[in-house]
Amino acid sequence: MIPIFLLGYYGFGNWGDELSLLATLRVLEDIGRECGFPFVYHILSGESKIPLPIPERCHIVPRSSVWRVLKASWESAFFVVGGGSLLQDVTSLRSLLYYAVFLTLAKGVGKKRVFFGCGLGPFQRRVSEWITCFLLRGSGIFLARDEETFSFLKQYNLCPAFLTADPVFLLWDGEEAFPSSRVAVFLRRQALERVEVLLEAFRQLQREGVDLECVAFHRDADWDVASFFGEKLGVPVRYFQSVQEVIAYFQALGGVISMRLHPLVLATCFGIPWCAFDLDPKIRSFGAYWGGRNLLSLAEVTPETVFSFLRNRDELQSETLRLREVLVERAKEGKRELTRFFLDVLGGQ
């Protein structure tokens, strides 16, 4: 058994991170079978249970238990960061330093460090970039999910780097969404800065026959704002309990309006037209594939700009279907690069 320590913001009720973990585990299981080396996993988690169909050889490591975290770190041959943007300081510098401890430990004792379908930044402090460069220099492989991250890695020549796509694209297995008038709205607390204009925009969509629903994609962070808008609009408010529920829900959507990245990734997988508020660099980076045509500015939003999404849905869907093939193939190429990496490393053992 080859022990792997999986690092990520797992077990906090954010479905973007949980789905990234699921995609990473499936890829590693495939690689383990191909290499002939079964993996056993230690998963850093905020909770003792993760709502995913995970392999039996997974051991949940509570972030609150310093001893168990250190023990899993020492025992693991590989450190794998599966998706997300752990190395950033927008959440806080403390968040960056937290993960820096593990990666510095791994670097110091010669553990192989792997970044699969990850992003970097944004960085608000120059010292954060210095820390990140130190952590990444000499890593085994970095599979970047976006152009900006890939450019950063190439600029500083930190480690073997390849451009891929978000690992969640690897969860798509050919399903298509059913035609629907339902549009899901994924809001964050920033929506409260423009309450009146957003409510009027959503009401205009309702008057045009759109069935809106408010969804808390991150259970703890989004539930209050989703409930607030749901109550004001008189529409259902949802939170997912399982992967199967997530997939079934997106299959029955006709559109997505979001302030989070992974609802956009899932919408793209299912060929669903979407628009997003460009609050986050990773959303702006993802929207660049569409030339930014489906990005909205929260500071400048009007009911008309949101309503224009409804008029442009057919055009956006056509472009989404085209780009889905590109991004899914990039994600598959990332998987192939990771397979080659493990074959090279494990083949010598």
Structure description:
The chain has 349 residues and is α/β, with parallel strands linked by helices. It has two domains: 2-169 and 328-346, Rossmann fold, CATH 3.40.50; 182-324, 3-Layer(aba) Sandwich (Rossmann fold). It is 47% helix and 18% strand. Helix 9 (261-269) links the parallel strand 11 (255-258) and strand 12. Helix 1 packs across helix 12, helix 3 packs parallel to helix 4 and helix 6 (195-207) runs parallel beside helix 11 (303-311). The radius of gyration is 20 Å and the shape is globular. The protein starts with a strand and ends with a helix. The model has no long low-confidence stretch (mean pLDDT 94).
Sum up the structure in keywords.
349 residues; alpha/beta; Rossmann fold; 2 domains; seven-stranded parallel sheet; six-stranded parallel sheet; 12 helices; 13 strands; globular
List the helices and strands and how they pair.
Blueprint: E1 2-10, H1 15-35, E2 39-45, E3 58-62, H2 66-75, E4 78-84, H3 93-108, E5 112-118, H4 126-136, E6 141-144, H5 147-156, E7 161-163, E8 182-186, H6 195-207, E9 211-215, H7 219-233, E10 237-238, H8 243-251, E11 255-258, H9 261-269, E12 274-277, H10 281-287, E13 295-296, H11 303-311, H12 313-346
Parallel strand pairs: 1-2, 1-4, 2-3, 4-5, 5-6, 6-7, 8-9, 8-11, 9-10, 11-12, 12-13
Helix pairs in contact: 1-12, 3-4, 6-11
The best one-word shape is: globular
The tally of strands reads 13
Strand order of the largest sheet: 3-2-1-4-5-6-7
In the CATH scheme, what's the topology name of the largest domain?
Rossmann fold
Number of helical regions: 12
Class inferred from helices and paired strands:
alpha/beta
Q: Beta-strand level of the residues, as a percent range?
A: 15-25%
Under CATH at level 1, the class of the largest domain stands as Alpha Beta
So, CATH architecture of the largest domain?
3-Layer(aba) Sandwich
Query: CA-to-CA gap between the ends?
Result: 12 Å
Report the sheet with the most strands, covering strand number, pairing sense and barrel closure.
Answer: 7 strands, parallel
- Could you say how many structural domains there are in total? 2
The averaged pLDDT comes out at 94
Low-pLDDT residue intervals, each spanning 5 or more residues: none
Helix content bin: 40-55%
Q: Over the alpha carbons, how many angstroms does the gyration radius reach?
A: 20 Å
- H/E element order: EHEEHEHEHEHEEHEHEHEHEHEHH
